[in-house]
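user: can you give me the structure for this one chain? tokens are fine.
assistant: on it. calling the predictor now.
[tool input]
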Amino acid sequence: MIADDFLPKLVEFIELLKTLKKHLNLELVYQAEVELKSTFLESEITAIDLVQSSTGVLEKLYDMALKGNFKAIIKEANSLKTIDLKFVPFASKIYQLAKEFQDQEIITSIESLGALT
């Protein structure tokens, strides 16, 4: 087996597409969609958006973090990514923190949104 390139773990989708395009001489048919997703990934999320679009998700994540339930946090973060592209940055951050067992960082991130009652 010969390796022509390296992608670090937690592969970025866009980087993966670029690498595949380079080595397989592919034409990206959905290039405009990928660029659009990239724009959404750079946008900021507000607590109002999150609370209005996903009932109780912040409370669930907060409670899971207090209990140290990282497996459930990872599952919830992945689910949140599918609700709306604008949630991807926040969900990705929570996902990464959960993979690193950073419960206090998760709690702080959720509290910083100021949406908990």
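assistant: here you go. The chain has a mean pLDDT of 74. The chain has two domains: 11-42, 47-112.
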